[in-house]
Known about the structure:
By secondary structure, the protein is α/β, with parallel strands linked by helices. Helices cover 29% and strands 29% of the residues.
Amino acid sequence: MAALMIQGCGSDVGKSVLVAGLCRAFTNRGLTVRPFKPQNMSNNAAVTQPDDRGLTGEIGRAQALQALACRTTSTVHMNPILLKPQSDTGAQLVVRGQVEGHWKAKGYQQRKAALLEVVLESFECLRSESDLVIVEGAGSPAEINLREGDIANMGFARAANVPVVLVGDIDRGHVIAALAGAKLVLDPNDAAMIQGFIINKFRGDPCLFDRGREQIAELTGWHDLGMVPWLTEACRLPAEDAVVLQTPSATQPEGQVRIAVPMLSRIANFDDFDPVVADPHFDLQFIPPGQTIPADSDWIILSGTKATIADMAFLKLQGWDIDILSHVRRNKRVLGICGGYQLLGRHIHDRHGLEGEIGSCRGLGLLDVETTLHPSKTLKQVKGQITACGSDFTGYEIHVGQTFGADTERPVALIDGKPHGATSLNGLVHGLYIHGVFDSSKARAGILGLTRTIPPAPDHTAVVDAALDAIAATLEQYLDLDHLYQLACRK
């Protein structure tokens, strides 16, 4: 079966979006396509559909999007190794969807070579059920200091004998040096895996870079497979890197529901907010560290976090606890999702040292609940109704810990008829564990439209699907997809 790997000259060169677009383009051509990323590092995760044994797992959010691009359900084989950073030097290791421990960076470098067998087994599972597997690399193969034991880039490509296409980001500048420099520093056997290059994120008249493309081909000996323009539709897709949240949004018209989201240090699953950002009825602003939460906000939403206790300390360090308490005293609303829900309670207990040292901390005390973190992680897809309006929603839970207390008697949602979440006695503060609840326009309005009457807007899933089709059409126009498929079919 055919396979092709998309690697990049660095992080954030657009690999994930290109893979998603190629998945949709080849799927639209009638092929059965599967996405694959051997190793991902992200706190934006998604829960897979149950397998034939009824088990679910977590994978990188980008691979779940790429599965959607293939018009198939996601599986743990699409991202067999997931690292979820919990500190600057450590991360939670997820193997085929299940937590396998916590590792320091140095220790993981010694551990990862043993995971190659797991990666190759998952890759073969996908190859056996598809016509084409499109593989996404991580970071850059030119980071030769990480080559020993590599399973994310050339280590995988050579072990699986998968041809590679290298992507350069012209929007950053120095793209000729990036591609030619990669050829220079790579081991000759690694460089031999690269069959061509793609220039990504070009703005302006493409003829202006014709000579540049020729020079890259001359310097590297690689085929020029095309140059992709700036993909405006990519902004409608879920982002994988929290860095994008630091870009300030444009000024919004008056009359919208104003939402502030403090940027916690370990913010996770921030793609929850994509449907809200895209909905013209809302003005959502991410508040970076060091800035106060605007007093004119209608809502403050606390996001998911990979390290709840550490982010409670971080929140207080920014003075956001004072801002949030003042916000509630002004009879304005607060919502916590997943880790944000835990932050709103009276206490958080980590009796197993899951986030570091064993201990407890005080929460904001805005909900009469307490959370105890447990080693077993809750991973499940859910369907339910918002209690405030009865609107249906689908989503998923992905968290450690259970939350109990008096305010759970006023649930935010019903899942299979059972209460979920908590609401304060004064009705201003709400918490729940469900990610993806904003995808439905009616559920979104039901939760966030409580302060005003908001008409329905398109469901976000349809918006994302349309964006994937638009990106696929652009790639058909600017890339040599026939040549790419021929490369993928080489043994």
